[in-house]
Design a protein that fits this description.
- It is built from five helices and 16 strands.
- By secondary structure, the chain is α+β, with helices and mostly antiparallel strands.
- Helices cover 15% and strands 36% of the residues.
- The protein has an eight-stranded mixed beta sheet, with helices on one face. Strands 6-7-8-5-9-12-11-10 form an eight-stranded mixed beta sheet, with helices on one face.
- It has one domain: 2,3-Dihydroxybiphenyl 1,2-Dioxygenase, domain 1 (Roll), CATH 3.10.180.
Length: 310
């Protein structure tokens, strides 16, 4: 990527899994399978120890499934059943607000999703500063926001990872909060992530969701993990009089609705163990496969699960 402003060796390696909390697991699973081509590799229930590690004890016993995109076997989408939260709307609350997924042909996907359970939010549209990159946005049945992004130019030299199939893996996760500088420094300084310029950006889908004026901007930047095409985007949501952005409501003891959690690989958990909601523990099944993991809360309340690779 040509506009890095720092050069570091990031401690966060790559996105291993994203988790969506949905009130209707069966319908959400069917949507990901039928419309996105995702394949279910595990089904079961959340065990009590795992729920406790997330800080969500009420999630114990809830149904869950793990899916993989076409052509992938080690990047996962996890669905967990959770009660519906009245009044929750995508792109209006703090925490994880979107998962961005690489695709082969966003225009064909957009036409297909017009008949699906995914609600269109915006696009396809070329990015202002990188016009060869084209993106669209939808909301799923659980209120999860998904960005679908393609490289329409030379993929060999693109900053984007190549898609493994028609719809590939998540390569960017988006967190929003009210204090952008604090969020940026927390991630960069704690995990040595690579920085890019901070922009004052007009983001139409956020403006629409929050009732902002057409010329109102948000602070925005993307910070880099170690592996190519693995980024965290940080969005600063405006707050104050006549603003609706606020902490995310959730059913007591459950995961946040919609975009609930992100699991990220890291070489060594120990330097960050003081932040863990519960001590590191080895866990079976995807995305852990016997590795140690723990969960912490980020500066906007977002749940971050770290999975140790060594």
């Amino acid at each position: 990527m040509g506009d890095w402003t720092t050069s570091t060796d990031p401690l966060l390696l790559r996105i291993a899994a994203t988790t969506v909390a949905t009130p209707d697991l069966d319908a959400s699973e069917a949507d990901y399978a039928r419309w996105l081509g995702y394949r279910t590799i595990e089904r079961g229930t959340v065990d009590a120890a795992l729920a406790e590690s997330w800080g969500t004890p009420a999630a114990a016993g809830e149904r869950t499934c793990v899916l993989v995109p076409a052509g992938e076997d080690d990047v996962f989408m996890r669905l967990v059943e959770a009660p519906a939260v009245p009044g929750y709307r995508p792109l209006t609350t703090f925490g994880w607000n979107a998962f961005e997924i690489i695709v082969d042909d966003v225009h064909t996907l957009a036409a297909q999703l017009a008949e699906s359970g995914f609600r269109h939010l915006g696009g396809p549209r070329a990015l202002q500063f990188m016009p060869s990159i084209v993106a669209m946005q939808v909301a799923g049945r659980a209120g999860e926001c998904l960005y679908f992004t393609m490289e329409s130019g030379d993929r060999a030299t693109s900053i984007l990872p190549p898609p493994s199939g028609f719809v590939g893996r998540t390569f960017i996760v988006v967190a929003a909060g009210e204090d952008f500088p604090t969020m940026l420094r927390w991630y960069v300084d704690r995990f040595a992530l690579r920085e890019r310029p901070v922009r004052q950006s007009r983001v139409e889908i956020i403006q629409q969701a929050q009732g902002l004026g057409p010329d109102e901007t948000i602070e925005l930047s993307a910070i880099g993990m170690r592996e190519r095409g693995n980024l965290i985007e940080l969005d600063g949501y405006p707050t104050g009089p006549n603003r609706i952005a606020a902490p995310r409501p959730r059913a007591p003891g459950h995961l946040p609705p919609g975009n609930a959690m992100v699991s990220i690989e890291i070489a060594d958990l120990e330097p960050h163990a003081a932040l863990a909601l519960t001590p590191p523990s080895r866990r079976a099944g995807a995305p852990y496969n016997g590795r140690r993991a723990f969960t912490l809360r980020g500066p906007a309340g977002e749940l971050i699960e770290l999975i140790e690779t060594e």
